Amino acid sequence: MDSKAERTQECLAEMHDRFRNTKSPADLLILIGRVGTGKSSLMEDLTGLDGYSQQSVNSVTQEAEIAKAVIEGREYFIMDTPGFDAENKNTYFEIIRGIQSIRHVSRITGLLYLTCINQSRFEDIDRNLIRFIYALCGEQYIPRVTFITTFWTVASVQQGETFNRQLGALQREWEQGVRTQHLSLYLHGREYNANGLDMGRIINWFANRDQVARHAKEMIHRNYRHTASEFHPPRIVRELDANIPMSETEAGRLLGLSSTSASESTSRGQPREQQEQQRRTLTPSEAPRNSRQEPRAPQEPPSSGFYILANGLARLIGNVLGGATVDVNIGGPGPGRPPFMGNVPTGPFDQNSSVDWLKRYNLDPSREGRLRYAATHGIGGEPFSADWGDAIRRDVMRRYG
């Protein structure tokens, strides 16, 4: 395990211990942005740690990483997320899953959205990202989103003027996307005075990196040191706390999640025709009731950063929530792979419960999950009846027991 992975595990353990001992959630800041926007560099500036930004074209965050920053005596946990790109939309889903997995022991104090100032055009992926942020956060939480521009490095006065014009264009796009004209902006690489006002001067990134980092920490202190008593969590947290299925959240609807794809995400990297065919084969009313597939042993879940994060966190916090099951639905099975739900049963195991048997083998125990299992394995009968559930239990025991 490399040092970044070790830090992530240490942070998860510390967040768990804090919640267990004080019932107080940790302050979490989430970094999101396109690939190559400097999230990892900002992570280093805020935490004072090395190893996140390798200063190379290949230094792209592939997994979720967490590190701790202490700013003006206050602890913040910073989560760096994989960058978004036009070819890979999985990060949208993983952001939601990451929030779902960690919300029990943390308070999402803020979201930091990064954009390169040297990006000449505002593209469709940028518009989609802004729409996603609004769906994820909701109107009440937008004041806790900081819109950050990076790469303020210029070779001439003219280039600096170009960047200033681009900043104005970006701000207009952001305001339109989140439906407000009062955004929290931060220009990472510009000089600020003691009152947090932009002085209009660009700092030499290489010669004065300490000053750049100091201004970034001051921004965090200004924007996030107060957690008001009327603090409103992001909309996605309120929705998940209200037991709204992921597919029915604002972000889920924006992404076009069905109840199946919300927990399975089988569409990763597959052609649309193949996705539609899979949806049809998983529809209970259309699946052959008496067909049987060859037994298949459980396979290892994917090893993405959020998978590791959610699984590790679920096991850490399982004994904190009063014996309840920690439901961390992070989905993501590939073809031939049972969906891993991260359910950690902390109560007694019921030998006669299909739900408990599904949990034992990391299969989806939800109502939708049981419907999918029955359809996939040709189990007939009245859904959710005792006989139907017993048939699922026997089938799980036969295949995986």
Automatic annotation (TrEMBL):
Residues 258-269 have a biased composition (Low complexity). One of its GO terms (molecular function) is GTP binding. It comes from the Eukaryota. Residues 258-305 are annotated as: Disordered. Residues 30-133 form the G domain. It holds the Pfam family MMR_HSR1. Residues 270-279 have a biased composition (Basic and acidic residues). InterPro entries: GTP-bd, P-loop_NTPase. This is G domain-containing protein. The lineage of its organism: Eukaryota, Fungi, Dikarya, Ascomycota, Pezizomycotina.
